[in-house]
Amino acid sequence: MSRILCMRAPRRLLSQPILATAIRNARRYASSAPQFDWEDPLASKTLLTEDELAISAMAESYCQEELAPRVLQAYRDENYDPQILREMGELGLLGATIKGWGCAGVSTVAGGLITRAVERVDSGYRSGMSVQSSLVMGGIHEFGSEELKDRYLPDMAKGKLLGAFGLTEPNHGSDPGSMEMTAREHPQKKGYYLLSGSKTWITNSPISDVLLVWAKLKETGKIRGFVVDRRDSPAGTLETPAIKNKNGLRASITGMIHLQDCPVPQENMFLEVEGLRGPFSCLNNARYGIALGTMGALEDCIARARTYALERKQFKGNPLAKYQLVQKKLADATTDAAYGTLAAIQVGRLKDEGKATPEMISMIKRQNCDRALQGARTLQEIFGGNAVSDEYGIGRHVANLYVTQTYEGQSDIHSLILGRAITGIQAFV
Amino acid sequence: MSRILCMRAPRRLLSQPILATAIRNARRYASSAPQFDWEDPLASKTLLTEDELAISAMAESYCQEELAPRVLQAYRDENYDPQILREMGELGLLGATIKGWGCAGVSTVAGGLITRAVERVDSGYRSGMSVQSSLVMGGIHEFGSEELKDRYLPDMAKGKLLGAFGLTEPNHGSDPGSMEMTAREHPQKKGYYLLSGSKTWITNSPISDVLLVWAKLKETGKIRGFVVDRRDSPAGTLETPAIKNKNGLRASITGMIHLQDCPVPQENMFLEVEGLRGPFSCLNNARYGIALGTMGALEDCIARARTYALERKQFKGNPLAKYQLVQKKLADATTDAAYGTLAAIQVGRLKDEGKATPEMISMIKRQNCDRALQGARTLQEIFGGNAVSDEYGIGRHVANLYVTQTYEGQSDIHSLILGRAITGIQAFV
Amino acid sequence: MSRILCMRAPRRLLSQPILATAIRNARRYASSAPQFDWEDPLASKTLLTEDELAISAMAESYCQEELAPRVLQAYRDENYDPQILREMGELGLLGATIKGWGCAGVSTVAGGLITRAVERVDSGYRSGMSVQSSLVMGGIHEFGSEELKDRYLPDMAKGKLLGAFGLTEPNHGSDPGSMEMTAREHPQKKGYYLLSGSKTWITNSPISDVLLVWAKLKETGKIRGFVVDRRDSPAGTLETPAIKNKNGLRASITGMIHLQDCPVPQENMFLEVEGLRGPFSCLNNARYGIALGTMGALEDCIARARTYALERKQFKGNPLAKYQLVQKKLADATTDAAYGTLAAIQVGRLKDEGKATPEMISMIKRQNCDRALQGARTLQEIFGGNAVSDEYGIGRHVANLYVTQTYEGQSDIHSLILGRAITGIQAFV
Amino acid sequence: MSRILCMRAPRRLLSQPILATAIRNARRYASSAPQFDWEDPLASKTLLTEDELAISAMAESYCQEELAPRVLQAYRDENYDPQILREMGELGLLGATIKGWGCAGVSTVAGGLITRAVERVDSGYRSGMSVQSSLVMGGIHEFGSEELKDRYLPDMAKGKLLGAFGLTEPNHGSDPGSMEMTAREHPQKKGYYLLSGSKTWITNSPISDVLLVWAKLKETGKIRGFVVDRRDSPAGTLETPAIKNKNGLRASITGMIHLQDCPVPQENMFLEVEGLRGPFSCLNNARYGIALGTMGALEDCIARARTYALERKQFKGNPLAKYQLVQKKLADATTDAAYGTLAAIQVGRLKDEGKATPEMISMIKRQNCDRALQGARTLQEIFGGNAVSDEYGIGRHVANLYVTQTYEGQSDIHSLILGRAITGIQAFV
Fold this sequence. Notes:
The structure is a homotetramer.
Chain A: H1 3-13, H2 17-28, H3 50-77, H4 83-91, E1 99-100, E2 103-104, H5 108-121, H6 123-143, H7 146-157, E3 163-166, E4 182-185, E5 192-203, E6 210-217, E7 223-229, E8 238-239, E9 254-265, H8 277-311, E10 313-314, E11 318-319, H9 324-352, H10 358-380, H11 394-406, H12 411-423
Parallel strand pairs in A: 3-6, 4-6
Antiparallel strand pairs in A: 1-2, 4-5, 5-9, 6-7, 8-9, 10-11
Helix pairs in contact in A: 1-3, 2-3, 3-5, 5-6, 5-8, 6-7, 6-8, 8-9, 8-10, 8-11, 9-10, 10-11, 10-12
Catalytic activity (chains A, B, C, D): glutaryl-CoA + oxidized [electron-transfer flavoprotein] + 2 H(+) = (2E)-butenoyl-CoA + reduced [electron-transfer flavoprotein] + CO2
Pfam families (chains A, B, C, D): Acyl-CoA_dh_1 (PF00441), Acyl-CoA_dh_M (PF02770), Acyl-CoA_dh_N (PF02771)
InterPro entries (chains A, B, C, D): Acyl-CoA_Oxase/DH_mid-dom, Acyl-CoA_Oxase/DH_mid-dom_sf, AcylCo_DH-like_C, AcylCo_DH/oxidase_C, AcylCoA_DH/ox_N, AcylCoA_DH/ox_N_sf, AcylCoA_DH/oxidase_NM_dom_sf, Glutaryl-CoA_DH_mitochondrial
């Protein structure tokens, strides 16, 4: 664990009793007699390092104390508080797997444990963080020049600069290779490109300072990545209107990116990468975070449904938890959470060892999103009509998890990616 | 078909070209060469009478022209316009299966076709109508004295008086037999009862004039039905606060009913019925409407998904409709809609012949709600990330249909009702 | 109902008490008070004519008395007794929907009720009958010359001549249009064709006398139908080896058809039909029988599982039927049987009115086979380990129903047929 | 890895080229560049030790070379060759996790890899081995006196003595606590008990020498374990008739155990254990083997379906593998196999560290059996009608996996075990 994360976390959190308990619980696992823990049925904690346990405990503590109390209202109002990213930055949670530039440099699994903690509260909050950490910081770190890294990463790590990632276009979702946004050499200003086109469903775009945008270079027809800095964009060349009235992820902010001959200096173009490899590599990192993140949302659904089932009584005063049909729903969801967590930890380890492939990420992204959504829906049934009240939180998770199933590769697209890897034949048609 | 419906419909609607087309299409079925119609795959129209076809066409026309344009905003604002019930009343759509008192006196199937037309737009609009028609007017018609019928039915049929149905209590959802609301004899005012207690999740309660409330008579401990007239209730004895921030059915209004020693005259108590038979009989009628109604919502999802799949192009310009995984989703949902419609028509016919049993209603209510919800969710996947925009309408149906699966008997409860009927053994525990 | 069936049935069956009861039960439905009947939950019997009820009762009686006692041993030994078709012929059950040539001339629904009765015992027995009735007799009746009809239909109706239907080839299952079997003009013998090629998975082929075989005419490349008469085929030109060691349908006999320059007179070729329309029309009739037939198998599974659940006691002597998880399985399967039956009756009526389309048949064939298989598998779980014993019969139905899902259009193929009908785009690739 | 396994394996196997390849492949994983391997999608091999890889390779080699060629005929004939257990004994595969008494003393995971190798060929073969290894040898090792261990374990490890495990009774499957078999003190012969009662569905019983039988001690009413030695049982006191005509596991032998005042010396009773803890502990070990074992069967189904899909061509010569609906089936099953394998490895590690609980075993036994069965059934659809031929092997796996889902705790029972662990409330009723 990086010094930064270590040093900062204690200052903020160690005096708080909840964290102390969390760490104590985490450590207890080394010595205790075997006992089934419905919150971690297959003892995935035994696979984590001390550092990872501590990071997870800190992140959970922050999320439960600071994020959980805000989410109900934020979701109702469809409002995202950019202050959240600054708070996360202060705790070292942003770009946490990057080494250097003020980032924590933790393991891939630790990074996933952070997303799980955030998504336990809300998938929208996790989305906001994933864009900042995996898509934009990750992209700049992987493909940007040293100068770009020095210019953007430190402030992004602190949450002082907010990022957005522009890949999806109105007419091109699952098939980004057909994108229409273009970059052409500036006819007057040497060393500059002019970017034009539209992106949509862009998390954080309305509040972003730094936009990593993918466009086709006119001269080559190849896709290239550009870092568009809002501060340097002349009026009228960059618009980022918000998309409102969403059915899910209402606690995150989403918008479009309209570029109209927006000038971008040549040094803001990624040099080392061309084609879809660039955006796909960024997505790969984000997808990992989603795979472990959605397990947090599912676990929260389990905890809420379990509590409800124990407290709600029907028919002669029996708690719902006594009914076989209810127990089966809990057993199914708990199993999926346990399995999905183990799979994500395994892929995280492989990633750090350079042994992970994109198909592995497709597999865990697809399966964990699918099962989280399915599990949340099944658990929702336990609440009966009461699930309609947003105060139970379950409906929010259900609506959010639908979105996680569709973004960064809709479930069926990942099925076909896997199918291609298994058979050697592509069937995207 | 009643004279009222016949006479009124033409005045309002016959000049409109859409209705003419609808009726022409409906009639065409008698003579045309066989051709697969994805909107009615098993030709359920051949099972309908001329009157039923005309009623259905009129209701569809009204709903598409008058309701559809309002629903997006209503759902966003969580707002229900009581004017809608007045419009429906003018068209003869309220309490339509009742004979007399200004009601249309149509067949059970025709009543279901009306709910289907309304729910094709929105399950919340259908809920508002079902409460008025099936639960309150139906209840008064079945169990009320002639005097009660004369006093309430004509104005309710016109939508001038709005009804609410108070059965579910905060602690008693699936098990209404344990209700806590009481009615006791008025200590001073002879011939009056005092009602006290709370009901929750009551559609229309905040805007209702006439509340059919079920309470336990103190002296017998038996459940009895009371018609509570808001105009006659002294200040402070009846409160109907709205429940806001719902996850679904946001285009209908829902609230609580708080009664605090609310005086109700003896003649407003249903005399002929005691115990759960009363409310269950009302629910039975409403459930029938839900069974056919949800098929409308599912059909709308199919139509929306089909259009989207034909218009949206990915990968070499192919429409999504060309993908096998998309076609299977459409085939599954279409089959469920076709089967569910036939089953509901059959039970409607049996009902009019006095051959329907409550278990039959349980079966079609459960199955049609389950399949509509499942189908809507599967079709939603076709929209990918775009489903998150409320303008596609699909997310609204998904959220609504979850609620229809839980109210008037949550799906699992109906499973156990059927299980009991099949095995002779009750397993509610 | 035809005179033949009417006259014959009584002679054989009316003295038998079981039939009397069956008819009495069938008639009772007209007058009795409404009561839920788990064997016919949505009262599909009310949709049947007196004739149809009587035919159904007779067929059920024969099947339960004569077929049921033989099936366990036949399935074990993988043996089919051709005598069964002769018995069915005597009762007028073969080619029953054909008018004339000694056939009963009953309604499509009545024909389906016969298949349901047979498949309630075993899908293999029903397969043997379907081939005779729908595929071969139906094909000759629809496309054959008057001479062919006169020559074959009367003896086939009596079960004296047995038929087989040769369409599927070793390399061409779902895609018969690519068939390799050829017919070429006899180089010496004028008015004769020589047929060569192989067919596989042909029900009844080893015991068949009359083989309706589809081959491509060399001169046109178009598919044509030929009636191959084993009695007229020189030694060595026609072989029909049995395929043994099947996983399902073991009580039916299956084989190949090898033709090696087998001479067939020109008049045995169907004149009126060319291309796939011929075999597809035959399949259409057979698929209808499967759609209603599989409901019989599913209903038998329900009855067996219900009995087992009531008799088997675990945990404090409670019957399994008391467990919620068991009741839900029963409720699900019962609902599917009820819905599937109604859909099949509706399509049968449309068929007789000339209003049915092949896509309707695809829909009910697909859905009813899928749900029957799914239901049988779920009900099998109620038997626990005991299902492994073949004496409970449930494992046999499960294995059989897998086959019904795959033949005459595998389920996914029908999904794509429906998808094409819904979207107008074919996705067979 | 034990010396015995090490020393013996090479002698037998190292000269064989297949093993060399297997070991080379296994080792390759340490160094190769990351590449998706559909046979091990989440690189579970990276979690195995060198020893475990070698044991797995040896077991796979034996099973593919020696067992695979026999299984088709064995399944057809419903015949189990006891020689197989002797071969396994020679290779050190029996009781492999036991340390001492000539057993290999390998890790729990290694033991599971052996069951996986065997079940890749056939679940029946794995069942025969599980009974010998986990249930009988495991039981004697855990609860027997040193004398009993010395007397039985060495010869059982060599496959010279065959074991059977008698717990399930005709009327008591999921609820063994209600067993009826009794043990009473011998009225004449001191130091002896007389056992009476019947057990059923006992794998290996007809060929067994050593029967571990659970019975209620008359004097206490408590369940105790007895080692019944067929050689010491007087004629007429022990009968073990085979159960024939099974729907699944036909390559294993199953029977009953009838005891009629069968005398058993006191020292053959387990002293240390009383009640259900004894048999449940044995089952726990066996269930672990099933959890990893069924993954082998599923993986074999994947491999067979993939090959078939690549070789079978339909519609314009496209292989089935090109169809989206086929690719999705492969992707789903592959994911389940990968996830299930990781979960089983994790629980194996916990078991060796003393951290596993019975609920963890319930979770992986339930989930892996459920998913293996579901996956096999879905993959079977790829074969269409050809799956009916037993030569494709897929139907055999489907039939076998149904049985694995029901034995050693039917799936629903494990759901309720998990439900109890999650909620603290039992719902067995």
